[in-house]
Amino acid sequence: MSEQIQRPPAEVRYAAELARLRETDDGERPPGWALSLRAARAFVIGDDKLGVSRKFVGDPSLIDRALVTLATSRGLMLVGEPGTAKSLLSELLAAAVSGTSTLTIQGGAATTEDQIKYSWNYALLVAEGPSTRSLVPAPLLHGMAEGRVVRFEEITRCPLEVQDSLLSPLSDRVLALPELTGPESMVFAREGFNIIATANTRDRGVNEMSAALKRRFNFETVFPIADFDTELQLVEAEAAKLLSASGVGVPPRRDVMEVLVTAFRELRDGHNTRGDATDRLSGVMSTAEAVSVAHAVGLRGWFLRREPGTAADLVSCLAGTAAKDSPEDLAKLRRYLEQQPRGRRGGQWQALYEARHELPG
Amino acid sequence: MAVTYLGVRHHSPACARLVADTITAVRPAYVLVEGPADMNGRIGELLLGHELPIAVYTGYRDGRRRHASWAPLCAYSPEWTALTAGREVGAQLRFIDLPAWDPALAGLRNRYADAETRYSAATERLCREFAVDNIDALWDHLFEIAPAEGLAERLDVYFDAVRGETEAGPDDTARERYMAHWVRAAAADAGDRPVVVVTGGFHRPALIRLAQHGDRDWPEVPQPPGDAVVGSYLVPYSFRRLDAFDGYQSGMPSPAYYQQLWESGPVEAAARLTGAVATRLRGRRQPVSTADLIAARVTGQALAALRGHPVPSRVDVLDGLAAALVGEALEVPLPWATRGHLRPGSHPVVVEMVASLSGDLVGVLHPDTPLPPLVHAARRQLADLGLDGSGEIGIDLGDDTDRQRSRLLHRLRVLAVPGVERAAGPGPGQVPLLRERWLLEPSDDRLPALIEAGSYGGDPLDAAAAVLAERIAAAGGDMPVMAALLFDAVLCGAGELAGPLLDELDAAVASAADLGGLGQALGVVLAMWRHDGVFDTAGSVTLGTVVAAATRRALWLIEGVRGGAAPADRARIHAVTGVRDALRHAGGQLGLDLPAALGVADRVAADRDAPADLRGAVFGLGWSLRGSATDAGRAMRGAFTPAGAGDWLAGLFALAREEVLHAEGMVELLDELVGGLGEAQFLIALPALRQAFAWFPPRERHQIAVRVLRARTGGTGPDLLRLDAAPGLVAAGMALDERVDAALRREGLITT
Predict the structure, then answer these.
(1) Is there a single domain that holds both residue A212 and residue A277?
(2) Where are the membrane-spanning stretches (chain A) (predicted)?
(3) Beta bridge partner(s), residue B424
């Protein structure tokens, strides 16, 4: 089945690895967990001996803290800039801990309590009245009843009152179904239930979380990849995959990728490799964006000239991704291209400088 | 002969304990310690009974370079326990490394930095293997927290893996060759009695190899070159400074935690750490509830279990605290995950946590310790220059002797020696004063202050230079502070920085964010660089570096200024003037990039989003640097809006006053444009126009008036400017105007 699915969930993609880990796992499992903490960690950060791939590039201590949090009575809140692989991490953690990553609530302005807790099959409700048969459980009810991890993506995109519906499931670990009577009117969370929420720091202030809810989460900030070589490798590998899928016959050029990743890091961090303070773009300069720019650069080079993309293609592609529709960012980008590449060593930097006029607008 | 090689990490409690235990058990004839061999005659001084931490400071100066370095020792330094345990068992104690001034150590400010971080590939692989963030966490994991059994073997395996096939650099190789020579000599001399060698673990594998073959006579202690001034002596040290080294100069972080670990073990250290953090945070009125502390403790213990630690390690405790106490997104990563200094933007809770790890213990030297040479040097120099008395002293900076006196006093002022105060004298960017007044008064605090300052250098000049270098590095991009510090350096006669300090200075300027402040500093520094006979700063390399860096930075900042109609900003305009002067007077010598500057000028001049004054100024910059401007007339017409004209002209006139005056038809064009403004528009433009024309001195304003009159009337001019009415009549008229104004103001019809 998975062959026809565009993107199977983590537990399907890595089913073999999970099975291997379960077999060799001799650590103690927290109640309700599919793996021990150590095996879950190995699933995320990789283990060469067991043939488990490294799926998340970042500080191992972050994974340690995240897993320990999930084993305690607090929820896990992953925060960070867009494109720092928060959702991927939450998917991996859920797959490792519960064996399923599909109990997912996508936060948004239109998210309602129904989509979080439960709703009704109205035909049955009218016909039979409220009963477990007419009840349609949403991810939270599923997760509590089955003792699994529930993922809540982009929680700060939801209105405050909707967010706060998590308060009692998180603190009392119980969900009331007032429509039902008897023992069925209360669903107590089974061991293994917890919540992984993700939030975007760019959304801060859109729907500020209440202090009460904040207190029930441990916050973990996910940062962009700190190491240049790691990021370069990742961008190069991902871009090569995308390019070959798009029918491009040549891999991306290493020197162009270096310029691209360096430029992305400098525009993201607000200082250049020499350490001088420069501009930080307000647009998202994540690794994911870098991959998509690298992809676009390769496409331009191949389909326009039958060669790998060059720094000149990079200039044309940068405007669309980096600056989007912000004139300030475009001005910052122009200043960067005018002043930073000049005098740097390397042919592609010079090419970038020569092509600076290609920046539209 | 039996030589026991103990490869240690400097400042590691586990290694310190191992060293002490080994020496007590082996009772060697010789204990050889990685340390400056030129201190061998003075090991007794080290063992007088000081309160740690202390350091062996070495200062070096010759015609080519100046170098200062420290070999810090604290209670849990393996080198320290080697010395004390060695003395207990009656062993001969020897330092066996090259002296700190030797060129092989020229790049090191901290002798006991981790050598292995200079060769990071192997440690990175190990960290990945053990799934830890960095070498500090790895170290705790393998050695500090792990049980003591088998520690020596684990250390050997670890350092063999770290050293592996790594080819050490020439500096480390030279040191290893020298240390091995000592080992051979000591082993030969000891005969069949044992010898213990305590060195950084990175050097151990090489030492074992090198000690096999070669001379067995005692090695010579290298002598400094004849023209060099060298001094090594003990100074008090502090946990703050022990923790402050960064990058590859750093050793183990968090001295207060490891001191606790050394004294009472990991369990107690973890508990104290939690307590200290909670106390500190509550002291700062940050909420730390009991529930938080329980959560932190549980998380810390769970992390320890997950990571396979029998008791929580430093990072386990910190991670637990961070998970429980930080309830929002972080701006920068946790410092114990990344290593190095706290970065700006660190979460306040994290800042407090790091501070409580660092501690504030300060060492005290035993009273019998020879005073640092700085004390003697300062006293002698004060006496030589007749400054050992008290009272007010006037100094004429034009006089050679007086200038020497001024420099000495400034050095002491920079070192914060009490009783030396300047009442008046020149400052940065002020009218150059050539006289200073000083107030001297004797103080009991002078001696302690000098002893403390002695850790910066053996001579007031060296010490002041070191202090200023430290402050310059700390000033970051704050340009007014930076300019003041550079001026202090000049006053001290310590204006020249060298090597990495120049790079730091360059980097600090490159992070300046305020164009006005940068321009002001650029002006001051450029003036000193071009011509300063009094302080001998003309052509100084240090100031040249600042000029070059500031010019580059100013060009970057100029292109980033955005903003609509705001009054002309003089500081900003001055910054452009500074860039112009730097390019014109120092461009060739300092290799400044003129085409880049012209590029910035052209782009900003044509940028509608840039403020009018800046556009005018950079247009003037291009005009003045090129000596001509294409289409100056069109640019002026383009910029001539009632709201912006004055500001644009203010910028232009500040940069290219003469060019405007001498260009054909410019004054006439201006007249035409001003004449074309309607009454109301003119009133809007007037204040800024007045400000713009204030850049012209009266004589040039007169010239403009003459040209305008000639163009309008064909007359010769000056006559028309004169009134033929009687002065009394004019005075009466002005009085009438004033009364009318007063009446209008009273009725609220005008407001000025």
Answers:
(1) no
(2) none
(3) B437
pLDDT of res. B117: 63
The whole-angstrom distance between B502's CA and the closest CA on chain A is 14
- Is A2 inside a domain boundary? no
Instruction: Provide the token pair at B134.
Output: 């960095």
A104 and A139 in a single domain? The answer is yes
| Residue B6 burial (CB count, 10 A) | 23
Same domain for A236 and A351, yes or no, is yes
Tell the residue number behind the tokens 């879950």, with chain if given. A40
Would residue A1 count as lying in a domain?
A: no
Comparing CB atoms, the residue among A218, A277, A279 nearest residue B323 is A218
pLDDT band at B250 (very low <50, low <70, confident <90, very high): low
Q: Is the CB of B329 less than 8 angstroms away from the CB of A79?
A: yes
Structural domain span for residue A176: 10-222
- CA dist., res. A176 & res. A190, Å (int): 14
pLDDT given for residue A36 in this prediction: 93
> Which contacts qualify for B292-295: CB closer than 8 Å, 24 or more apart?
B292/B324, B292/B325, B293/B324, B295/A72, B295/A74, B295/A218, B295/B320, B295/B323, B295/B324
Q: Which one of B12-26, B323-337, B616-630 scores highest in mean pLDDT?
A: B12-26
Is the pLDDT reported for residue B366 higher than 90?
Answer: no
Q: Which residue has the higher pLDDT, B542 or B574?
A: B574
Alpha-carbon gap, residue B190 to B174, rounded angstroms:
25
Q: How far apart are CA B67 and CA B100, in angstroms?
A: 9
A162: domain CATH number is 3.40.50.300
Query: Is A330 found in the same domain as A206?
Result: no
Measured between alpha carbons, how far is B695 from B700 in angstroms, rounded to an integer?
Answer: 10
Which letter does DSSP use for residue B170 in this model? Answer: H
Chain centroid to Cα B477, Å, comes to 10
Asked whether residue A216 falls in the same domain as residue A260, the answer is: no
Tens digits of residue pLDDT in B388-403: 888 888 888 888 888 8
Task: Let me know whether A109 and A148 are in one domain.
Answer: yes
The 3-state secondary structure of chain A, one letter per residue: CCCCCCCCCHHHHCHHHHHHHHHHCCCCCCCCCCCCHHHHHHHHHCECCCCECCCCCCCHHHHHHHHHHHHCCCEEEEEECCCCCHHHHHHHHHHHHHCCCCCEEECCCCCCHHHHCEEECHHHHHHHCCCCCCEEECHHHHHHHHCCEEEEECHHHCCHHHHHHHHHHHHCCEEECCCCCHHHHEEECCCCCEEEEEEEHHHCCCCCCCHHHHHCEEEEEECCCCCHHHHHHHHHHHHHHHHHHCCCCCCCCHHHHHHHHHHHHHHHHCECCCCCECCCCCCCCCHHHHHHHHHHHHHHHHHHHCCCCCHHHHHHHHHHHHHCCCHHHHHHHHHHHHHCCCCCCCHHHHHHHHHHHHCCC
Q: Which residues of B touch A (CB under 8 A)?
A: 131-133, 137, 295, 298-299, 302-303, 305-307, 315, 319, 322-324, 326-330, 333-334, 337-338, 477, 507, 510-513, 553, 555-556, 559-560, 562, 593, 596, 599-600, 603, 609
- A210-258: pLDDT as tens digits: 888 888 899 999 998 888 888 999 999 989 989 988 888 888 999 999 9
ipTM of the prediction: 0.85
Tell me if A269 is assigned to some domain: yes
- Final residue belonging to a domain, choices A195, A222, A249: A222
- Domain count along chain A: 2
Give the number of A-B residue pairs with CB atoms closer than 8 Å.
Answer: 108
Taking 80 as the threshold, does the pLDDT of residue B110 lie above it? no
Evaluate if residue B247 carries a pLDDT over 60: no
**Whether residue A212 is found in the same domain as residue A239:** no
Q: Are residues A209 and A234 in the same domain?
A: no
Using the 3D structure, point to which of A222, A250, A266 is the last residue of a domain.
Answer: A222
pTM of the model: 0.79
pLDDT at B195 over 70: yes
